[in-house]
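Session log. Operator J.P. requested a structure for one protein chain; no other inputs attached. Running the standard single-chain path with token output.
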Amino acid sequence: MKTETKILGAILLVSLIIVIGGVFLLGKNNAPVEKTAFSNIDYSKGQKIGSSSAKVKLAEFSDLQCPACKSVEPFVKEVRGKYQQNLQFIYFHFPLMQHAHSKKAANFAEYAATENKFWEIHDKLFETQENWSSLDDPTDYFAQIGSQFGLDKGKIKEVVSKNSYDQKINDHVVEGEKAGVDATPTFYLNGKKLSLQSFNNLDKEISEELKK
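Structure written below.
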């Protein structure tokens, strides 16, 4: 009888552990879903183009060395042009570890922003991505690009070598992590994370948002 009681007690104890463990895991699995469904993104930290009073805000978390980010650029430019009266576009850096030069490129772009040349350099870096991505050190190449837009070569080299804008870039990354970004490019439309079957759907999503 004592043996049966011990066995029954052991079974109940194991069952209790399984139930508690299941609840704990369920809580862990559910938490990110709620967190990433809708995000209160601090747009002031990103690089912006378009009116701050625009009905639609499209935020992109991107890596300047990311091939997928480059491939989506034509679609982004298209919707920026089409909806320019009603859309503000906000760009956030989200450099990935596997891209050796992405933070250098982001530093270069942020320096360009201080000279009101962010979007020119942003576009040029994507345009020439294959050229500088394969270099051991793209600093001189960046300086050459910058000089085409009237930027100081020496200053570019200094900024890139010293990672002068790392803090600002890291602020972008933190903002992305809070929003649930885990890949690039990732888009948020008025705070809602987009799950695009195709980047052609970007236009449709914006159009639907404007109807609300």
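Operator note: The radius of gyration is 23 Å.
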